[in-house]
């Protein structure tokens, strides 16, 4: 299960994810991001602080987002390692 909370802030749209970014939930997050992207002019930020698992497809989506300049935030050891790997590959 994945909970997606969208927080509209002054200069950014923060996507707060909680749970597992795996399987069908990856597609749901993509739809949510793309729908919001068309409507908003704010800078998107993805907060992965409460994500407990990321599969291959979740990592691919986060890589795509990173390459488009979207900021990815993580606090857990596993999630930080995944984000660091994405950032290094994108250089």
Can you walk me through this structure?
The protein has one domain (2-89): STAS domain (Transcription Regulator spoIIAA, 2-Layer Sandwich). It starts with a strand and ends with a helix. Strand 1 (2-8) and strand 2 form a beta hairpin. A four-stranded mixed beta sheet has the order 1-2-3-4. The chain has 91 residues and is α/β, with parallel strands linked by helices. The protein contains three helices and four strands, in the order ββαβαβα.
Descriptive key words:
alpha/beta; 3 helices; globular; single chain; Transcription Regulator spoIIAA
CATH architecture, by name, is 2-Layer Sandwich
Indicate the CATH class: Alpha Beta
Distance between the termini: 32 Å
Run of helices and strands: EEHEHEH
Mean pLDDT: 91
What Rg do the Cα atoms give? 12 Å
DSSP helix fraction: 40-55%
Low-confidence blocks of residues:
none
* Contiguous helical run count: 3
